[in-house]
């Protein structure tokens, strides 16, 4: 939530603004309530200045504001795209926030939980507040510390800064070190001052920040995607660390101000392909990327002896063998991937699997100990609810396996094992290819555990993997028939609610289909376990109520026949029935107004196919209704606050 970008160069040019605006456009998925930039111009000796430009709404409004009032060449820049937490999405609440003398600017991602107390203290000292944000408290605190003559400057060196520049730079670093222990909550902070235009000072706690290493310039971003096309060399910023970034160097400090060895990692080049590539929306592109996303996630997992491997494993096999329970924690779509996974993992590994929304998990005092395996599923790897859940689990002695799409993300760093989904960057706010890649990854995990725990022989694992490898082709088969789904969606722009029904692995698919419709079309949609229908939800059915039913394969008659009966039951009460059914399953034809087909696939793998028409349906219906498919209202791609 909220995207943050920074850039610092050796001399003034248009580049800092260009880099920051480009970075913001790559991070806009993180929030789009408002956007803003702060730039430093000139040199300290001959008069430096700070400019702040902000606009409410999407980045395009900020672009228009900058076009109307062009800014002078700059030495450094910070930018922010906001998902509003404290205060309405208005101009005064937009970041960057500035000190009262307008010489220091700051952007923030996270929530300062003790903002009220700090605000009262600052007000008593005469500080005036113009916004309703928690962030403005931080800018005043930083400014107060920066100008506190009694605060000793930080003792180290900031590469490239000399004379008064160096002195003020060390004072700004000292100020950031001094204030962060007083902040409760979560933050990524980036600050710059016209008193030291060649420096950006940053800090983080439980919100993401990475630094990109350039030549004669450096970059900062909430996500490496912000600068992925400009450098492949990135530096991690750890919990409670403070950094000073100049054009010539980066110093990473612990909370006491001691210099740490920077930990470099390589930025994934695939992230560069975060463009629409001819599709009219990212969501359409990402739906169509699913065969590749699933194939890449399961590729090269088997070694020559038929044994599966995870990406990073810091858990002894004896612990995996001794585990007596698995708890999958995740939110939203990722939690539905977990619900699908439960069917497969319990079946293959004979271990009880619970699936829990990450934000509920730690508050119910769950029974977790060193024999519990916790699996965290997250596209972004930065979802705060999921981070807090895994921290809680580890405190109780559990081992955590992360399934994430973002290498180097907080969840992957804080887990004992990592399995990467290779879906590539997912830009559309509503998740599609990450969901199917997550399901595929949980299957790899389930088979891996079945192999380690002795529930499946290597040849059985190989057999399941071979069948899984055929799924991308089957997804392509569904995508090749997307136009028929789109046509139906276009004809249904008048609906004001939709019910989704599924049984067994079709049940989480029903939940996901309903979530896609809510997010994209802003209409009420609800997914039910089909068996639950007669226990209440059937009362919702009246003339014309659209119901989407996911039908299991006829090869599992104990599941299939009951769902076919459900179609008849809702049809008899006037429902419009849209059905997702296997190719050749003619039993549904008589009761279904519309049938979307999927090819024959093993039951456990069916969600990878049956969800696709539901994604296409929601995407096309939203477009027909005139909604912004990639950036639905009120949402942000990664939910980095609780
Ligand atoms: C829905 C959606 C969200 C996310 C959820 C978890 O389309 O994208 O429900 O699945 O916010 O996000 P991650 O996977 O990043 O932890």
Quick overview:
Helix content is 35%, strand content 24%. The protein has 642 residues and is of the alpha/beta class.
Strand count: 26
Average pLDDT score: 93
In whole angstroms, the N-to-C terminal distance is 11 Å
Strand line-up across the major sheet: 3-2-4-1-10-9-11-15
| Helix content class | 25-40%
Low-confidence stretches: none
Which overall shape is indicated by the principal axes computed on the Cα atoms? Answer: globular
The class by helix and strand makeup works out as alpha/beta
Number of helices: 19
Proportion of residues in β-strands: 15-25%
Bound molecules: fructose -6-phosphate
Radius of gyration: 26 Å
Largest sheet: 8 strands, antiparallel
Could you characterize the architecture of this molecule?
A hairpin with a 2-residue loop joins strand 7 and strand 8 (196-205). The longest helix is centred in the last third of the chain and has 20 residues, at 433-452. By secondary structure, the chain is of the alpha/beta class. 35% of the residues lie in helices and 24% in strands. The strands form four sheets. An eight-stranded antiparallel beta sheet has the order 3-2-4-1-10-9-11-15. It contains 19 helices and 26 strands. The chain binds fructose -6-phosphate. Residues 331-334, 378-380, 383, 386, 430-431, 515, 519, 638-639 line the site of fructose -6-phosphate.
Key features of this structure:
alpha/beta; 642 residues; binds fructose -6-phosphate; eight-stranded antiparallel β-sheet
